[in-house]
Amino acid sequence: MTAIDPIVTPHAADAFSALQQAWGLRPCIIRCKDFADFATPSQVFNTFQSCAENYSSAPRTTIPFRVWSGNNSVTCDVATYLPCRSDRGIQEYVARILQANASDSIFVMLNHLYMWDSALWARYRKFVGNIVAFAGIPAGGVDFDVICGRYKSTGFGVHVDDADNFTFVLHGSKTIYAWPPTFENVFSKRTANAEAVRSSAVVLTGRPGDVIYWPKTYWHVGESLEPSMTVQIAFYGVETLKEAIVKTFANALRKSELLDKLVTEHTSLLANERLVGVLESNETPPDTPTVSNTETWPGLSIQSYCVELRRYQQRNQGVIGVNFAFEE
C-alpha cells in the first residue's frame, strides 16, 4: 500500500493551487484550516437529526437516507437506525445504534444535503466556486452528501463514480483506499472485494479538518474504524459528447418526452455514429406471459436508435433497463 501524506499549508490559496495540480490526475489530502472550516460537526449533525425527525414522522418521505448494518443493506425500519434528538453527538448516536442492533458496523448516508439545509450548503458554495474557477462548471452538476457511522467498508463496496470527489472529515477519522483506472479489469462496478488487491491501493487517511480528494477515474472504498462524520462534495462531469449522449439515453428511458426531443432535435450531432445495445423491460406488460422482454439492435444510427427506444417504451410498460455502447 502507498500511504499519501497530507499537503499541509496555512494558506487556502496554496491549497487550491495544490488541488488544481492534482485535479483529474491523482488523489491527495489537503490539511489547511481556512480551506475546510465551513461548518462544525454539531451544525452538520443537527441537520442530520432534523432530517431523521422528518423521515420518522413521514416514513414515505423522499428524504434519501441509505443505511447498511454490518454487510446488509437496510430497507425496512430505516428510521430505527437514524439519529434522534436524545443523541448528544456522533459518538453517542453510533454507540447506541451498534448496541441496539448487535452489530459491529453501521454506515448511514444522506444524499442531496443542499435540499435540507440551504444555509449549510451556502457555507460550502465558496469552496465549490473556487473549484469551478479552475475546473469549469461540471456538466453533471454538484452533489452534497453526509456520511456517518463506523464501518470496515463503504456500504456498497468498491466502486467508481462519475465524479471527482472531496471528503471533508468533520469527526473521527476516515480512510479511502483508491486504485487507478488500470484496475478496471480487476473490479466490476459495485461488486468487487478489495481484500485481494488492498496491498496495491493508494491509502488516504483524513482526520478532522482534512479534505481528501480523488479523481473520478479512481476505484475506491471507504473505511472508518471509529465513529466518524464526513461531508462529501462530488463534481459530476462528462468528458465527451458521446458520454453525454449515453447519459441522456439512460435518463430518457423513463421519460417519454425526452425521447421525443432526442428524435426531433438532437440526433444530428452524431449522425454517422452507430450504437449497439440491449434493452430489457423489468416489469412485464399486462396480459403478457413472459417474465421480461429483451431486444438487441446492433449497428443502428442515432436517430434510428431513438425511434426504436420510443417504440419499445410504448410497447413495454414499466421500468426499462439499458446496456449499450458506441461501435468502435
Can you give a write-up of this model?
The protein has 328 residues and is α+β, with helices and mostly antiparallel strands. The chain contains eight helices and 15 strands. Strands 1, 2, 3, 4, 5, 6, 7, 8, 9, 10, 11 and 12 form a twelve-stranded mixed beta sheet that branches. A three-stranded antiparallel beta sheet has the order 14-13-15. Strand 4 (65-69) and strand 5 (72-74) form a beta hairpin. Helix 7 packs antiparallel against helix 8 (302-315). The longest helix is centred in the middle third of the chain and has 18 residues, at 118-135.
Structural class: alpha+beta
Main beta sheet strand tally, sense and closure? 12 strands, mixed
pLDDT under 50 segments (min length 5)?
A: 262-298, 318-328
Give the N-to-C terminal Cα separation.
36 Å
**Rg measurement, Å:** 22 Å
How many strand units? 15
Q: What is the averaged pLDDT score? A: 79
Q: Percent of residues in beta strands?
A: 25-35%
Identify the overall geometry.
globular
State the order of secondary-structure elements, H for helix, E for strand.
EEHEHHEEHEHEEEEEEHHEEHE
Query: Approximately how much helix is present in the residues?
Result: 25-40%
Determine the number of helices (DSSP H or I, runs of at least 4 residues).
8
